[in-house]
Design brief:
By secondary structure, this protein is of the alpha+beta class. The chain is built from 19 helices and 25 strands. Helix 19 links the parallel strand 21 and strand 22. The termini are far apart.
Length: 562
């Protein structure tokens, strides 16, 4: 009997988790939450035309590439976590890794000049650009999971690129932040600025070259971007400006369908999240499991804040061990072992912050925080949580002439200097060193939590702060707060180094700040609100479907019956 019980537990926590769905076998309504109203409406249009959630995800991805050039695009990459109901009332969770890859000519000393790493080389211009994954993801979703042709699902984005969209305050703020870099590239300045300055509020932005590129993908799928005339133009434009792309780089790029990270929590919920090359899913799993060993739910607000900070400190320390699973061996089993996490939780003192210097010190790496996320679910319960990025706002600020494709600067997410500090202070190591064809480590964490009673989807941009934002939203779900509050709650974050709680101005009361400082925590206000969290929720008991977009952004959440 003991062996049978052990086998049962192992099966429940296995890599491929099949969950029984309760009384309401399907939600009966569609729900969408994206960072831009035009993207939400593009997804809804495709659902109304008979597409499923995966078709809607294609439309949303492409629409965001048009209206949020500062956050994602065809020149970027990302992760797609899917929920696919199967026969017998169960669910399967494919994970599509569309992370960018280093060019085949890349090497560990790519950004080193005169013996010193030059950070600006991995931030601006085509040398900073990895090989994009979003076009491949669009084609893969259409061929493997969608119901409609790309000519249908890309039509809303093509119309937005051709007919233009209205410049809003979010666009202006982000363009101002990257103004000098955009001015330095003639094509980017022509497309995204007006007379070399940020476009006026209410003016329209047109991208006819991007519309033509989308048409090629709509007609030819994967090959429309990665081979032929467009690929020639991309490689020629990159190399003419000092980049190292080759036709082989584009021809060899493929998305990878991976097994997502799936962890059974002590309360019976199952976390489904991003595996490496994301470090975010592991950090979420470690944090939730460590909290299971702490009395965080019954504690005061300060006790809870202290506990969450301490588990994040330990989870972020461990990310130095992770990297592209096609290039390094990731010790996920060891990092999620119950004995290890119990030991980590036991080291958390109730009245004292653990100085990061007392834990094994890691090395550091970069990671940009300007990303986008969307969640979509159709009436049958198929769902997608996708986090997409071009790294910094407007990526490398380099647009390949004649294509409308603004390139990423994701090469900056590698550990270009494994022994040096950087602007973000994230922990890294040799596991994330630059190598030919390698995918850089990321914090992007599109995630689901599913139980017999409900299903929830989470995700946000925010670079190193992504896992902590998603964690706080998941804890709000455990507290049974209204869905609209999940993305609205004040935020705080700890990432091991720098050894400080980064927080929004309204995250703590004066009394809470004093209490945390008395325990030894250093507080570092970020001076602004951060993140743009998108959530969906399906209560299987009542059948209620909810969606919410972060009030910090301009996004839109929609729920509609078919």
């Amino acid at each position: 009997m003991r062996n049978e019980n052990r086998l049962t537990r192992l099966v429940a926590a296995g890599c491929l988790l099949l969950l029984s769905i309760a009384a309401h076998a399907s939600p009966g309504k569609a729900a969408i939450a994206t960072a831009h109203p035009l993207a939400s409406q593009a997804g809804l249009q495709i659902l109304r035309e008979g597409g499923n959630a995966f078709d809607a995800a294609i439309a949303i991805t492409a629409a965001l590439a048009v209206v949020e050039p500062y956050g994602s695009g065809l020149g970027g990459g990302g992760f797609y976590l899917l929920r696919q109901p199967t026969s017998g009332g169960k669910a399967h969770y494919p994970f599509i890794d569309a992370r960018e890859r280093a060019p085949l000519a890349a090497h560990a000393n790519l950004y080193r000049r005169g013996g010193q790493v030059q950070p600006e080389l991995s931030l601006n211009g085509p040398l900073a650009a990895a090989i994009p994954g979003v076009p491949a993801a669009i084609a893969y979703l259409a061929s493997q999971y969608g119901q409609l042709p790309l000519t249908s699902t890309l039509a809303p984005a093509i119309a937005l690129a051709e007919q233009g969209f209205t410049i809003d305050s979010a666009y202006r703020e982000r363009a101002q932040w990257r103004l000098k870099a955009l001015q330095a590239d003639a094509e980017s300045a022509r497309l995204f600025l007006r007379d070399g300055e940020v476009p006026a509020l209410g003016s329209r932005l047109y991208q006819p070259e991007l519309a033509d590129t989308l048409r090629l993908i709509a007609r030819d799928g994967h090959t429309g971007f990665y081979s032929g005339e467009l690929a020639d133009r991309l490689v020629e434009g990159v190399r003419a400006a000092g980049g190292i792309w080759s036709m082989e780089d584009l021809a060899s790029y493929q998305v990878v369908e991976r097994t997502p990270l799936q962890v059974r929590l002590n309360n019976g919920d199952t976390l489904i999240s991003a595996p490496p090359p994301s470090a975010g899913g592991v950090a979420l799993a470690q944090s939730l499991l460590m909290l299971d060993w702490l009395p965080w739910r019954s504690d005061s607000r300060v006790d809870r804040q202290h506990a969450v900070t301490e588990v994040l400190r330990r989870a972020y320390r461990d990310r130095r061990l992770l990297g592209d699973p096609d290039h390094v061996q990731n010790p996920i089993t060891a990092l999620l072992a119950p004995d290890y996490l119990r030991q980590q939780a036991a080291g958390i003192e109730r009245e004292r912050a653990t100085p990061s210097s007392e834990l094994a010190a890691p090395l550091t790496l970069h990671e940009g925080e300007h990303t986008t996320h969307f969640s979509v679910m159709d009436s049958r319960g198929r769902a997608v949580a996708a986090t997409l990025s071009i790294n910094l706002m407007f990526g490398a600020a380099f647009t390949v002439p004649g294509t409308g494709v603004l390139l990423n600067d994701e090469m900056d997410d590698f550990a270009a200097d494994v022994s040096g500090a950087n602007a973000y202070g994230l922990a890294g190591s040799q596991a994330n060193q630059i190598a030919a064809g390698k995918r850089p480590l990321s914090s992007m964490s599109p995630s689901f939590i599913e139980s017999t009673d409900d299903f929830a989807s989470f995700g946000t941009p925010g670079g190193s702060r992504i896992p902590s934002m998603v964690l706080l939203a998941m804890l709000a779900r455990q507290d049974q707060l209204p869905v609209a509050q999940w993305p609205a709650l004040p935020r705080f974050h700890h990432q091991f180094l720098p050894d400080a709680i980064q927080h929004e101005d309204d995250a703590f009361s004066l009394e809470e700040r004093a209490a945390l400082q008395q325990r030894g925590h250093s507080l570092s206000p970020v001076g602004r609100r951060y993140g743009n969290l998108m959530v969906l929720h399906w209560d299987k008991r009542s059948g209620k479907v909810s969606a919410a977009s972060d009030p910090r952004g301009i996004g839109q959440a929609l729920v509609e019956a078919p």
